[in-house]
């Protein structure tokens, strides 16, 4: 990895700058109010690429059908989902409806109106069971989601894969590992840690849950770069989007403290067995030519 700051750019994910493939075309997306969807739309807007974001609720099939009618997309990016995990656990019915049935609603409209359109479906590393030791997880690893959120994302993958493969529509399922951005707010890990570090009195120790848990985390801008590299090549199949490098929650907190000019101690209780989620990036590297 290279660069400065708590989350340096992975050396194999270069900044994406060549938008030639999109000139004269229109792309569509859901989830522009989320971090990734919003960043992607801004990238296209900055390059003068026509991009239309669905403004409504993907759980409203009639409104979704009306929006798709008369539009033609060369590519479509599906980011809309109910997150984070705590919100999913609080309302499992809405989570399943949004993450699974909402994905079906989007796929149905693509199949009815956009049969030549390439789809990027944003999935999650939460479909994997964390490993007991910090080893990279490949796309062929068993998918045993430990959370209800992960189970909804895996079910959504099955909707995409089953329908679009059966009807021969090109698609890519990106299993995005952890990311952060200035637009994120608590209860996500990094903004929560930043908030708590900022409020920590001098000399105090930061207490965190599961400090030994290991995550593969990067800046959201680099995730968008990876997605754009995949989109330019109209990559297909399932691919992990991560850095291939894992860091413990303890080390992430220390890095954030250094970024803020703080020198702190980090401690805490392991409330569950320490688990690791690190991406095997072999397929991503091959697909984007790294």
Q: Could you say which overall geometry the principal axes of the C-alpha atoms support?
A: globular
**Which stretches are low in confidence, meaning pLDDT under 50 for 5 or more residues running?**
none
Provide the succession of SSEs.
EHEHEHHEEHEEHEEEHEEHEEH
Q: Please state the structural category.
A: alpha/beta
CATH superfamily of the domain at 20-181 and 218-244 and 279-288: NAD(P)-binding Rossmann-like Domain
Structure description:
- The protein is of the alpha/beta class and 290 residues long.
- The protein has a domain of 199 residues: NAD(P)-binding Rossmann-like Domain (Rossmann fold, 3-Layer(aba) Sandwich).
- It contains nine helices and 14 strands.
- The chain has a six-stranded parallel β-sheet with strand order 2-1-3-4-6-11, sandwiched between helices. A four-stranded mixed β-sheet has the order 5-14-9-12.
- Strand 1, helix 1 and strand 2 form a beta-alpha-beta unit.
- The two termini are 13 Å apart.
- The model has no long low-confidence stretch (mean pLDDT 95).
Explain briefly what this protein structure is.
It is built from nine helices and 14 strands. With 290 residues, the chain is of the alpha/beta class.
Topology of helices and strands:
Elements: E1 26-30, H1 35-46, E2 50-53, H2 61-68, E3 75-78, H3 85-90, H4 92-113, E4 118-124, E5 136-137, H5 148-166, E6 171-176, E7 178-180, H6 189-199, E8 205-207, E9 214-215, E10 217-219, H7 220-232, E11 237-241, E12 247-248, H8 249-259, E13 265-267, E14 276-279, H9 282-288
Parallel strand pairs: 1-2, 1-3, 3-4, 4-6, 5-14, 6-11, 7-10, 8-13, 9-14
Antiparallel strand pairs: 9-12
Helix pairs in contact: 1-7, 2-4, 4-5, 6-8
